[in-house]
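Researcher: We're teaching a course module on how sequence relates to structure. For the next exercise, students receive a sequence and then see the predicted structure as tokens, so they can try to spot secondary structure elements on their own. Here is the exercise chain.
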Amino acid sequence: MKASKIAYKPLGLVLGALSGALAGAVFKQLWKVTGHDEDAPDATDEERGWREVVIAAALQGAIFAAVKAAVDRGGATAVRRLTGTWPG
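Model: And here is the predicted structure for the students to work with:
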């Protein structure tokens, strides 16, 4: 196994946890700014309609994927700077 892959494993775990927390915070703020309730609806929230539940889930998923990709890419770039090889 390349040194860069070994170096990236623990960094990737930490970055994964950080990206999840960051994505959750970004989504929560965006949901509030767009004029919705304080909290996004759960799929089993009887008071919320299908449209609101599905839109919230799609938005949350898109934000999570984008933040995770940006954080993972930044981590891989940092590993390449440190080791000289790409961790992928």
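Model: If you want an answer key for the exercise: The chain has two helices and no strands. The chain has a mean pLDDT of 87.
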